[in-house]
Amino acid sequence: AADTINLIPQDFFAELCEQIIQHLNHKIPGVNTAELCQRIQTSGIEINVGDLAKIANIISFLFSTAARNNLSTEELITSLGNAVSALPKHAVQVIRHVWNEQGKSISAEDARTMATVGQFVDIKWKLGVAMSSDTCRSLKYPYVTVTLKVADPSGQITDKSFEMTIPQFKNFFRQFKEMAAVLETV
């Protein structure tokens, strides 16, 4: 992990840490590591989204644990212990600065009750028609493709896609209408 952190420029690492703090404060639904990774790659740094997601998980765990234990900045840096020597100096400086500036905004109660399920961020859909395949000349089969953007408990934003037949989509839509009706009564 320290080697990967070493690849990330200080400004991007600071942005990652700030997004994690905002996520822990429930100000944003999650950290979009795919978008951040693309920007880092555009700047000429070779890093993959999986490695960046692991770093985000580590930092999120670090900050939420520090909030749960109500650690001061110095206690946080001290508790990192041996990891501090393995971490790049710029990373330790960023962690120290971000925690010092914004760490107290995370309540210990919020850190204890962080969601253990994902959080819905966005939905996109499109209607398509399969015209033919190598085994069937004339399908003319309509379908709906749905892409859900979900933030997992650690804050990583991922896309989940699935296809439905028209009858499946109608059932899906009916269930959403039922949920909306129940929500109206609350």
From TrEMBL:
<dbReference type="Pfam" id="PF07258">
    <property type="entry name" value="COMM_domain"/>
</dbReference>
<dbReference type="GO" id="GO:0051059">
    <property type="term" value="F:NF-kappaB binding"/>
</dbReference>
<feature type="domain" description="COMM">
    <location>
        <begin position="119"/>
        <end position="186"/>
    </location>
</feature>
<protein>
    <recommendedName>
        <fullName>COMM domain-containing protein 6</fullName>
    </recommendedName>
</protein>
<dbReference type="InterPro" id="IPR017920">
    <property type="entry name" value="COMM"/>
</dbReference>
<dbReference type="InterPro" id="IPR047155">
    <property type="entry name" value="COMMD4/6/7/8"/>
</dbReference>
<comment type="function">
    <text>Scaffold protein in the commander complex that is essential for endosomal recycling of transmembrane cargos; the commander complex is composed of the CCC subcomplex and the retriever subcomplex. May modulate activity of cullin-RING E3 ubiquitin ligase (CRL) complexes. Down-regulates activation of NF-kappa-B. Inhibits TNF-induced NFKB1 activation.</text>
</comment>
<comment type="similarity">
    <text>Belongs to the COMM domain-containing protein 6 family.</text>
</comment>
